[in-house]
Amino acid sequence: MAPTDPSTCHPDLTVPWSAPPGPESRIWVGPGALAQAQAAGPVALLHDRRLPDEWVERARQALQPSLVLPVRSGEAGKSMQEVTRLLSALAEAGLPRSGAIMGLGGGATTDVAGFVAATYLRGVRYFAAPTTLLSMVDAAVGGKTGVNLPEGKNLVGAFWPAEAVWCDTDTLDTLPVRDFRSGAAEVFKHGLLAAPELLDEVLPSQRSGAGLTQFSQRLPEVVRRAVQVKADIVARDPTEQSERAFLNLGHTLAHALETFTHQRLPHGEAVGYGMHFAALLSEAHGAKNLSGHTHAFLNWQNPEPLPRLSLEALWPIINRDKKADTQGPRWVLLHELGQPYLTRVDRALLDDVFRQWQRDI
Amino acid sequence: MAPTDPSTCHPDLTVPWSAPPGPESRIWVGPGALAQAQAAGPVALLHDRRLPDEWVERARQALQPSLVLPVRSGEAGKSMQEVTRLLSALAEAGLPRSGAIMGLGGGATTDVAGFVAATYLRGVRYFAAPTTLLSMVDAAVGGKTGVNLPEGKNLVGAFWPAEAVWCDTDTLDTLPVRDFRSGAAEVFKHGLLAAPELLDEVLPSQRSGAGLTQFSQRLPEVVRRAVQVKADIVARDPTEQSERAFLNLGHTLAHALETFTHQRLPHGEAVGYGMHFAALLSEAHGAKNLSGHTHAFLNWQNPEPLPRLSLEALWPIINRDKKADTQGPRWVLLHELGQPYLTRVDRALLDDVFRQWQRDI
């Protein structure tokens, strides 16, 4: 029998799949938000094992978890091995299907905790309390969870929105300055995408070198505004069928830099580098006045210098980007501030712009 | 600040989560169905590595996969280690987000292939071609995917429905008789739950010991009817909020037996044992004329004898069953044929019935 296109061949049975919609995510932003955390039913608290005891203790007091599991810190924790260990610990402790998982820590911890929640017993309720600027404005909102493979970052995961997110801006007071500046990349990115006023919040004066600090009175408002940009996009396109891909501005190169450096480069610094590359590419496609912003941001952020690089060496990693298809990678660029689009880029142009970017950084 | 119930505390932001509905599953049942398989875009074929070459070759011809990955056979393949290996192989080969995964083999293979599809790049399209009776009437339909942990069976997974399922009944001709009889347990279970006529198809004469064979002309119709029972329940309750749990008739004890025997007992034989236990429990709760059917089925199926068992030793495993909650396990019982319900059972009664069951088997 010749193969028949199933779409034209009448099946014997069809089963509709009408899963109920996922939960609405409720998000609290501000000083003391963690003390508001509360959840019905038994909760397993998964926290970054290097998190200051003070924050673990506050989460314990608020949630009264039946189980507390420290998670390996940073990208090392975002591995299938760590996921497997955590799943076994939950099973061993007998967390029931009616239970919930709370992720407490930076983006790596909330990513892995969310993926564990998505897959334990085929999914249990999930809550997040992000403790870094980066995870507040990006990782903890929008349902993306993920872990890395040796082949690249975030190649495994699930869409599993947190039912509640507590962004306690007090936790930022004890965050290392470098981590704070790393996280500011995602605030800046949301500014480039949809909220130019955020650029001024991060870098009020590009000449003075002053900028947002973790002790700023305006921080809760800045975080709230940055989260709102992401929330608006996610609400319109939860599973990245279209515009949600814009949130990957700067991330195609960033993920490649992270993989290339074996995750030694912090995510926000990689995004800082990647945003500048995207700005230069955008200008090569006709946009104006973008790379000044991203270059000023890099100067303010002061990221770790990169090892010797070639586009050639990064290319296989870039080609595994989740936005790639059979015709190769696609890039998020800007027509102008607030006007993102997704496009392929000619390889010769990429080579040109890559050299320009290398001179700038 | 005293903890506040978030449900009464106004959040700063809410993000609706309105993921599009999953795909409709289209199911083909009959001789030659595999030759109809076709899929748009690049496909990775994941098949049981012990499957006869003939079936792998037919799937290759129909689908023209860009990648073919053998999967460890049986329950050993349903491990996080095997999942991790397969995910890396897909990433290494660069299967894009627009690609799809086809699972070819028995229930263990389609369970693991489906879970890989659910998590690779946060989910790609999934197709299934079950090659055993058990996987046709149960595993391949309804969106449940899963892998085991050392702590128990199917403790990890995701709901990820196959877009198309090809049940080629020709594949059953080469299935070992024991596997065929093992799979018949799920046909019988669907008969007990909602289609008494299937009991007669499997065991037309309880006295003669004759019964359904894999060469029966009626097999495609029997498979179609058994799939229909599951499809109807899944359509009404895709994510097991309520009646879908009835499909676990016999499975609470079955999963414990499988874990206790380190997965050496085939699933369908464990379900055969478990259905008889459920029938006896149902009768202890007032039902009539059920255990005659399940006992006759056990005699026909002729399962592997069980090791020396005690309910005491099985209890911790039973308590980790996914239907368990903080008050302990729940059991699917029958008021009568076609009338399932979910209930807790008094521990003393369980002890009694367990001894009765041990005498019967």
UniProtKB/TrEMBL annotation, chains A, B:
EC number: 4.2.3.4
Name of the gene encoding the protein in the UniProt record: aroB
Chain ranges of the 3-dehydroquinate synthase N-terminal domain: 70-181
Pathway listed: Metabolic intermediate biosynthesis; chorismate biosynthesis; chorismate from D-erythrose 4-phosphate and phosphoenolpyruvate: step 2/7
GO molecular function, one term: metal ion binding
GO biological process: one example: aromatic amino acid family biosynthetic process
Sequence segments annotated as region (Disordered): 1-22
Entry-linked InterPro entries: Dehydroquinate_synthase (IPR050071), DHQ_synth_AroB (IPR016037), DHQ_synth_fam (IPR030963), DHQS/DOIS_N (IPR030960), DHQS_C (IPR056179)
Major subcellular site: cytoplasm
Catalytic activity reported: 7-phospho-2-dehydro-3-deoxy-D-arabino-heptonate = 3-dehydroquinate + phosphate
Cofactor(s) this protein requires: Co(2+); NAD(+)
GO cellular component, one term: cytoplasm
Enzyme's top EC category: lyase
The UniProt record lists the keyword Transmembrane: no
Keywords: Amino-acid biosynthesis, Aromatic amino acid biosynthesis, Cobalt, Cytoplasm, Lyase, Metal-binding, NAD, Nucleotide-binding, Zinc
Domain spans labelled 3-dehydroquinate synthase C-terminal: 183-324
NAD found in the keyword field: yes
UniProt name for this protein: 3-dehydroquinate synthase
Subcellular location: Cytoplasm
Organism: Deinococcus radiophilus
Taxonomy, superkingdom: Bacteria
